[in-house]
Amino acid sequence: MRSNWLNIAPTQIRHFQTSSPIIENVTKEQVQSYLQKSPSEHGFLLLDVREVEEVESNDMPLIDGAKNIPMGRVPEAMQLPDEQFERKFHFPKPKQNQFIVCMCRSGRRSLVVANILKELGYQQVYNYKGSALEWYNK
Predict the structure, then answer these.
(1) Are 8 and 102 in contact (CB under 8 A)?
(2) Residues forming a β-bridge with 66
(3) Residue 102 annotated as catalytic
(4) Which residues touch 86 (CB under 8 Å, ≥6 apart)?
(5) Residue 102: enclosing H or E segment and its boundaries?
(6) Which residue range forms the structural domain that includes residue 111?
(7) What is the pTM for the complete model shown?
(8) How many domains does the chain have?
(9) CA-CA distance, 51 to 57, in Å (whole number)?
C-alpha cells in the first residue's frame, strides 16, 4: 500500500523546510530520558508522524509512549476542539506550551511537522532527527 503522507503539497513542504522557525534537534538519548520520566506527568509528547501502516509494521513499530498522527492529518488535527481531538486520536490534544518531540522514519517528515506545529502556535517543538531508523538501528 502506498503511503499518503504527501497530502501536503510539495510547495507547502518546501515552505516549512526553508522559511519557518529553526527547529532544534534532540538525540536518541534525550528521547529515551524523556520517556523514562513518565511522559504525561512531565508534559512530554513523542509525536510519531508516520503513516498508520508504518507504525503497525513489525519492522519499526510505534515506540512505547509515543503517539501517532500521520503527517498529512496534523494541520487539521491540531485545529480540532479538544474533545473531538481526543475522540479521534485517543489521547489528549497537546497544549500550546507542551514539550513535543516529532519523529518519523528518518527525520524529514518530522521536521516538516515540527515547523507546522510552530506555525500553529506550539512553543516547545523539537525534532528527533534520527527517528525510527536510528531508534531501531536500521
Answers:
(1) no
(2) 46
(3) no
(4) 92, 93
(5) strand 99-103
(6) 5-135
(7) 0.84
(8) 1
(9) 10
